[in-house]
Amino acid sequence: MKNVLTYLIVAVLFFTLFYGCEKSNLVSYIVPTPDFIPIAKGNTWYYSGVAYDTLGMVREKFGEIHDVRGDTILFGKKLTFYAGSYVAISDSGLIGYAGYSTNSNTPNDTTVYYHLLYKYPAKTGDKFNYGMRVGTIDTLINVPAGSFHCIQYMGYYQGTLYYNSYVSPGTGLIKIEAYFGDNYPANPSKVSSTIELKTYTLN
Hints:
Largest sheet: 14 strands, antiparallel
Number of helices: 1
């Protein structure tokens, strides 16, 4: 069976990328601003998680490790491999590599796309990409690793909230709470899974 946390994290990132592919929502690769999510090589985050069934019963407990593998150059830009994706810190927040396109008439003219995964700096009510919103900008989240002041990022699809992500600037992803959404019409806000930061090591 696939690790549920891996599925959840990939799904969250894919959700953001897939539903954020309108050209008006694309962002440029710009000069990095450090310390929002510390993506230095060797940084490691350990998470614990719980998946629930629609009755609220624990279906599975699991764990996951996120680490920073190192940097690479794609289309002349420096990107970092973090949590299964190529990302970079920009002055808009955390951006992710989202592919490229070429014009058949000018095959050497390549357009590279980056999507904003987490907006930072942020203020309550900010919207970015398709369906992404900023909730509270300073909420205290308690997890096994401690208490962290976090920005709440809310992932919507067609008006339904599918997940809340909590990110603490300078530390990284602290918690994700996902919901059944339209897959469970009786109670779309019912929690389907949670992950929480257990321990972490930052260089």
